Amino acid sequence: MAHTTVIPVPVLGKRNVNAHLLLGRRAVLVDTGIPGSGAKILARIAEHGVEPRDVSAIVITHAHIDHFGSAAELRRATGAPVVAHVADLGPYTTGRIREPYLPTGRFGRFLDRLDAFHEHAEPFRPDLLVDGPGTLDEYGVDARIMPTPGHTAGSISVLTDEGDLVAGDLVATSFLGLAHRKPANPPFHDDPLGNLASLRAMLALKPTRLHVGHGGPLDPARVATWAAGEQRRLDRLAARGRLRTRAQADGPAGKPTSDGR
Q: Hey, how many other C-beta atoms are within 10 angstroms of the C-beta on 51?
């Protein structure tokens, strides 16, 4: 087994929005930032000796604009196939996220009012659509793709054989990474209880560290403590009928009610 190094690739600020570079026998990029981030990401990975032709695959953790925004651009630049989950195919092929956003709190409600969170990305069709666990071995990285639905229906995480979990938006640090090392919800979840179940399933696999899309690396024990409290909070909200999910936001035929996204 070759050693796999997980390297954060800051896209906005020091850690507000991150992609991640996995370095093993070859290089795999996880997530692509907001639209127009391609050149910046390529410059960041070049600092680690990785040229565009060295990228063997691009994995997208989920269909939010700050994670798939530059996927089409980076696929052209690298020639690498894009790997993503079939349940999020619609936003990828249209370049438009599913709306309305479902904020997890006041910060999410604030961000929902910003135009940047409603931008369109260049559409693309993933080269490899997964619908269950998979492996990145053929791309030169000893790691598994793990479906972790809840944040979006097609959210996935990447777990290296050495225990590093690249978790997308399963969990974040407060205020898009500004509160370093403090676990928190990201601004939005399509299914809060479903996401928390996915997070707790990943914690049961005993990862050594969680690498997230917003913030620095998180300690699994600290995340587990936070998750236990979050479970109690969500259960109370659910009992009062105050948890909104994507299924409720969409219309009776499973179609979004706002703008057709």
A: 11
Tell me the one-letter amino acid at 36: G
Model pLDDT, residue 178: 62
Return the DSSP state at 88: G
pLDDT in tens, 122-179: 999 999 999 999 999 999 999 999 999 999 999 999 999 999 999 999 999 976 656 6
* Beta partners for residue 135, in sequence order: 144
CA distances (Å), origin 68, targets 35, 47, 108: 8, 22, 19
Q: Tell me: the pLDDT tens digits for 80-100?
A: 999 999 999 999 999 999 999
Q: Average pLDDT for residues 215-243, to the nearest whole number?
A: 96
C-alpha dihedral sign at 247, 249, 250, 252: positive
How far from 36 is each of 12, 67, 138, 221, CA to CA, in Å?
12, 12, 29, 36
- What is the C-alpha to C-alpha distance for residues 95 and 85, in angstroms, rounded to an integer? 15
What is 99-166 written as a DSSP string?
A: SS--BSSHHHHHHHTSGGGG--------SEEESS-EE-GGGT--EEEEE-TTSSTT-EEEEETTSEEE
Question: In this structure, how many other beta carbons lie within 10 angstroms of the beta carbon of residue 71?
Answer: 28
CA–CA separation, 47 vs 63, rounded Å?
Answer: 27
Give me the pLDDT at residue 259, please.
Answer: 36
